[in-house]
Design a protein that fits this description.
Distance between the termini: 74 Å
Shape: globular
Strand order of the largest sheet: 1-5-2-4-3-6
Radius of gyration: 25 Å
Number of domains: 4
CATH topology of the largest domain: Pyrimidine Nucleoside Phosphorylase, Chain A, domain 2
Mean pLDDT: 94
Low-confidence stretches: none
Number of helices: 18
Length: 502
């Protein structure tokens, strides 16, 4: 075992431990290290060790020949300081890798098998190449429903879990793919105003124009500590915060970091991902929204029903009371797509503004009503009317304002982004198709969600009558380069089809 001086390298390697060694380092030659080998780094006392994937450097301005560099993530795990002496050795291959090979070969894995794999992943014993092998094995060979259950349980067991100290903690989740579908920000204040506990940890956008956390961040701070979240939940019965700091089912975050660039979207992985996060977040009752449509994630009723049965099976096995609803996913929900525009829609609905988007309001009321019916004191079929009363009376708005105040008010931008362009109808007729994917793509090209005020404002929805040259939607961008990208993309394919009334 050889020693080197430790150096922090300011590179974000996103969910992967990476170490850097100079090609002329004596250790590189004497120990037979190669690029993408895994090495184990330990301190002199033997109290701390981390495993990292090795990258080789040719520039001494980055790493000297007597140094070992660690990426930001890796350095944060190491209990040492720059220039301290570290020991470096070849890492022992993870014992669970044989199970990955078994899965690739088409074998079924057991509960302990998935737990062993998840433990090695969360302890950074897998490289992203090995994680990719695991994901492909699960996607290509498929996961049986028991395997989905075992993976869900393993993800929960290898992270933290939240305990709210109450018998009923409600939550909701949409499987995604529908732009502007910001129902969470309406459901939480409605349900919390009724007195039910709904502590909502939400995600940021990965491939969409905005996540719930991105949109809520227009109004309030979302990066909050656990003790702050508990205090807000205690006082207001709900919050909407980013879940990235809670270390809930951390294996899921690592797997997603590999899935997204590869465009892998395994059904079993998706179910385990959603339910592990909800169980770890302390939910006891959960509503799942499966939008269905030609450009949604789920295209047919048959596919949606199969997915619902799988969710219900794992919910039963994990003592999670779960209801699944299949909703209209043929088009975006609401008018705004992008953080600021979505936040505007939400506040218009809470304020009972007549200009508020009716579709987002109605979907939110339907879903809030189903959640309210988890309360044994609310009769079946009455949840919708109770939710509507909580909204129209102003109690939901008052609750949202209180939640925002406790999370911490954000200075709200007063206008959409500066560059604007209207996409117009090429002919008269009716809107027959709105492509969710294309609309989301254009909004992202315009700068959403990084630029909060960028995105798309829809003026027409399915079955609306349009005249030639009438605006279908407006693109907003903060920077000219993004503006030109979005305009060019919309010119090639606006995402809208105009035709005869259907």
């Amino acid at each position: 075992m050889k020693t080197l001086k430790l150096r922090k390298v300011a590179i974000d390697t996103y969910k992967e431990n990476v170490a850097y060694l100079h090609r002329d380092c004596p250790l590189y030659h004497s120990e037979g290290f190669q690029a993408l080998n895994k090495i184990e780094i330990s301190d002199g006392a033997g109290t701390t060790s981390v495993i990292a994937v090795l990258n080789i450097v040719d520039d001494e301005r980055i790493i000297a020949t007597d140094e070992l560099g660690l990426s930001e993530q890796t350095f944060s795990q190491f209990n040492g300081t720059e220039n301290c002496i570290v020991h470096v050795n070849h890492a022992t291959p993870p014992s669970s890798l044989r199970l990955v090979h078994a899965k690739i070969a088409g074998n079924k894995l057991g509960k302990n098998d998935f737990l062993n794999i998840c433990e090695d992943i969360v302890n950074n014993r897998y490289s992203k190449i090995e994680i990719t092998a695991f994901l492909v094995g699960c996607a290509e060979g498929g996961l049986e429903r028991d395997e989905m259950l075992y993976l869900t349980e393993a993800m929960v067991e290898t992270g933290k879990t939240l305990d709210w100290g109450e018998p009923m903690v409600v939550d909701k989740h949409c499987i995604g793919g529908i732009p502007g579908n910001r129902t969470t920000m309406l459901i939480v204040p409605i349900v919390a105003a009724h007195g039910m506990l709904m502590p909502k940890t939400s995600s940021r956008a990965i491939t969409s124009p905005s996540g719930t956390a991105d949109t809520m961040e227009v109004l309030a701070k979302v990066n909050l500590k656990q003790e702050e979240l508990h205090s807000i939940a205690q006082h207001q019965r709900g919050f909407i915060a980013w879940g990235g700091t809670a270390n809930l089912a951390p294996v899921d975050d690592i797997l997603i970091s590999v899935e997204r660039p590869l465009a892998l979207d395994s059904k079993g992985q998706m179910i385990a991902s959603i339910l592990s996060k909800k169980i770890a977040a302390g939910a006891t009752h959960l509503l799942i929204d499966i939008p269905m449509g030609p450009t949604a994630k789920v295209h047919s009723q048959t596919e949606a029903l199969k997915l619902r049965k799988l969710f219900e099976y794992i919910g039963d096995q994990t003592n999670l009371e779960l209801e699944v609803i299949i909703t209209d996913g043929r088009q975006p929900v609401g008018n705004g797509i992008g953080p600021l525009l979505e936040a505007r829609d939400v506040m218009q609905i809470l304020q009972n503004n007549p200009q508020a988007p009716v579709d987002l309001k109605e979907k939110s009321l339907q879903m809030a009503g189903r959640i309210l019916e988890f309360d044994p004191d609310v009769r079946g079929g009455q949840g919708y009317y109770l939710a509507r009363d909580l909204l129209e009376s102003g109690r939901a708005l008052k609750k949202m304002e209180a939640i925002i105040a406790l999370q911490g008010n954000q200075p709200v931008p007063t206008r959409p982004a500066q560059f604007q362009y209207q996409v117009r109808a090429p002919a008269a007729g009716y809107v027959t198709v709105i492509d969710n994917f294309q609309i989301a793509h254009i909004a992202r090209m315009a700068g959403a969600p990084m630029d909060k005020a960028a995105g798309i404002d829809l003026h027409k929805k399915l079955n609306d009558r349009v005249d030639t040259n009438e605006p279908l939607y407006t693109i907003y961008a903060e920077f000219n380069a993004d503006f030109q990208f979005a305009r060019t993309l919309a010119a090639k394919d606006s995402g809208y089809s105009i035709g005869e009334k259907q």
